[in-house]
Predict the 3D structure of the following.
Amino acid sequence: MNKRLAFFILALAVQVAILAAVPGKQVYARLTGKLITIKTTPVDPYDFLSGYHVVLNYEISRLPELEPTMRTGTDQEIKGYVYVILKAGDDGIWSATSVHNTWPKNVPDGCLVIKGHRNWRGIRYGIESYFIPEKHREAIEKDLRQNQRQAKAQIKVDRFGNSALIRLLVEDRIYEY
Amino acid sequence: MKNKKVSAQFRKQLKDEISVWQAEDLISPEQANALTQRYQLGKISAESLRTLLGVIYGIGIVLVAIGIISFVAYHWMGMTRTSKVVLVFGAMLACHGIGIYLWQITGMSPKLGHALICLGSLIFGANIGLMAQIFHVKSQWNGMFLPWSIGAITMAYAVSSVPNAAMAIITSFIWFVGQHGWFDSTSTSWWYPFVAAVVFVPFAYIKRSEVVFVMTISCLVVSTQICAAGAVDFFGWLVSALSTGALLFCWGLVSYGSDKFKSFAIPAMVAGVISTGLAEYLFSFQELAEEVTGADRLIFGNSDFLHTNPTIASLVVLLLLLPFAIKRIRNHQVLKAITRIIIATLVVVTGSAFINEILLVVVANIGFLVMAAVLVWAGCQLENRRLFWVGVLMVALMVVSRTLEYETGLLIKSAAFTACGVGLVVTGGIFEKYLKRRRTAGE
């Protein structure tokens, strides 16, 4: 094979690999993760490159035990990965029971660990955006605004703590794209 | 054509003139033929067509790319996730595939083929956003630009494509700016100037591309200065601007002595003078010089402040390049003088900033005026209007700035402005007379 062509194929492979790597963790979590439901509070910006999306805050994004550090801590103390143990409540909604700076050793039965990145605004899990079609934007926005307290998200969490956002639930209505 | 590179405009004019000269019997048909051969005047039409096609393809791919990005933003409804992914990869692979076929495999239409490969890399960038959209991944706004840059530069090296390299430099710089921001010491992107130098500089040299070289040095200088400013505020920026300025000037001198890379010399030297002059000008303002604090002086170079590393590296490279640069310009009085001024500015201004802010203001003012004087002198020596006028305007700028900075009476302000205006007109007149005299003497 021509040397130039070989280099071209190699470069193409790099581009394909990058594209495949972008959603790599989400695809793995979707394929192997456990489906759970968590409480959410949405807001709605517009992003030119990625179309419309709902920005979501979760109940597990701000944990009371982290608040003192958030207020007074230095960058080094605040920024970094955290591992949150989640447990299902009687209503089927999962909530945080404890937060750790390293992977927790003794995770109680029935609980699971979700990995997040802590910053000044709270914990981000990589599931804070849900892209929605332009056509349905107004209806979804209205529904989410009127029923903020009832909004929930279903996510899948894999064995490494990575998560993928699957769908939004507002009362009995399901938004999945 | 063995003579130095001549502009397309000159060749077109020459072609028209040759017909006139022949009609007036000023030159024989043999001489006309010799000139036509020497300047390859017969190829002008084909070259113009190629340039026009390049521009049309360039505009075309940009429009198509905008269309694709808008399509991505539309978030089409009727397709499954799998079909979207297939479409994403398919569009990119088709563009690249047809592009390489037309350009390098069959050689049927190199310009169109190259344009399609550039379009493929633009689609690749849009696809990063699309893949994120399909799987609901959202990072910081600038997150997609780093992988885009990696993909584009890999393709640039693989097919020797300057537009792909330019795309990579722009996207990587957008990523860096988004990651860093001014005066931010928490960012972890201090390594960016090093990686950018290692990745982009060799490409500019391999392709001998002036465009890539200019973009690369701009990106290196600005990112190095942003890093230093992030770590050590104004003092960091001052040291960084002076050291990168001196480095670029020496880089230009080294290129000046090289036959292959002579076209890199002027942009590097101009960038070096701008960086040095800008630092001197800004710190000639007392208010800004007072921002250089004692604490900043102490932490510069501290191992906890990794963001000063690019500046320290530029100082080290400067020391390594300087002997070669001096060797190259041994017989060039003007370049020698400007080099001395730039190196002296680096040493003296940085030194005075270490001592105290009042000294810094005085030295920055004097340094700026000395540089202006050297440029005026260089303009006269080389009979170069640009250098002369840049020097004169620098002097005027300094007078106006000082008049406005300090509380002076209206009479003094009026005198200063009038003196600047009259000075500009008079020196311009003297310079033009001087040029005329020298050129007449030369003839």
